[in-house]
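Entry 14. Ran structure prediction on the chain below.
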Amino acid sequence: MSHFPLNAFPSLIRDIIHDVHECTQAPVPLIASSVISAMSLSCQGLINVRVNQMAPFPVSLFLLVIANSGERKTTVDKIVMKPFYQHDTNSLREFEQKKTNYSLEMQVWKEKEKAILSQIRKKTTQRQSTEETLKELKALQVEKPVQPKYHRYIYNNVTPEALQMGMFNNYPHIGLIADEGANILDRQIMKDLSFINSMWDGVSFHVDRKTTPSFTIEDGRITLSVMVQKKPFDLYLKRQGHKARGSGFFARCLAVNIDENLTTQGERFIRYQHSVNMHLNYLHCRINELLAESNLNEKISEKICLSLESSAQYEWEQIYNSIESRLKPEEEYASMKDFASKLANNIARLAAVFSYFIEGNCEIKKEYIDSASIICEWYMQQAIHLFGHEEGYYEALLLSWLHREYYQSGRMRGSIRFNDIRRYGPSALRKGKLLEKVISNLEKESAVYINYSLRGAKFVNEGEKFNNNIFTKHPAYSFYPLATTATVATNRRV
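Output, structure tokens:
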């Protein structure tokens, strides 16, 4: 799980990630998540993607990076997102100038309006015709100065009200980007998850206001990229985790935890670095091209719809079916159905972003589906590690399996090799570190205990609370019924 599939990225994107890594020596998964966010933000206002006969849907992606201090989150963010920050700085400067001009123009316009209204009042009092003056007033309304827009891409420390108003009044395709994600997680914006989720889904969102006019955000898009330290993230889980999981927010995210297996701290030595980062320069140039394209497309307000080549479509359908088959109770995604339900969609989105960022307007090739599938599967494994052990599903499932195995062994006190659980136990626990985590949780509840043979073999034994603990009350505990006869091969037992 810790091995990041860098080779699965299209070669151009892989080279960009390598350039940023050479500059920063930051963890590759952290850099990759930032690069994916940048591509998503630059493409989301231009394209949708269609698979099968489904309605087109957005390509916006949500990235969540959990990384402690010292992982160079800010450095990576500034390097990768540089074109957006430059755009927003220039846009703000232009907006301030236009706002000053607008203020002056409005003063002049209001004086003209007052003069015409004064004439209308005077003529009305004198019972004269106001028809010609009314025409002047109507013509003046056409000339009313238009309030300038602040075309801004990146938001972070913002309230839901300010963000929604900005998307409605200014530009509807934005990024919630934070290299210190506590600024987002601690704000009200992350308590209004229905809005965030609606933007991922690409549906209209109506905002009701009491004191100001209500409005509807049409065709809004949000790319979310949150890098947050582990402690603030854990605090957020305690406060809002159940809601975030229940609403489907976490399931929409491609999440990664930069743990001891992924960190580069302790390996970042001073070394000679070449100054020519041609691939990073390409990233910035391509983003600027897409930003210019977005400015033109804003006037047209119609997105390109990317479809899949026939071979890519077939591959995506096979991936979808494979995901579905892994939702069975003893399979890998059994407790992650919410995440798995969004996995195929995220694969299509990432493939579309790769395709348009690299090749522009053309059908999505199979190679991009293959790349996106491998990458999203890695993020799915990260999600299982982060969220899969919640609610005690796997603990109850393993207890159910152990109960059957212990009972059918014919022993008063069950005992089974750890490696036999790895080989024959529930499918979801046969790889990665999830099994160790689950057994650790069972040990804490005295449901099992561990000992070792003289030769060092690890055994999992029935604990004093094996039949009565918090996990035996979980529905998954009934998954493995006892057989009527002892048909299990007992030659695996001691």
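The two ends are 32 Å apart (CA to CA). Will compare against last week's run tomorrow.
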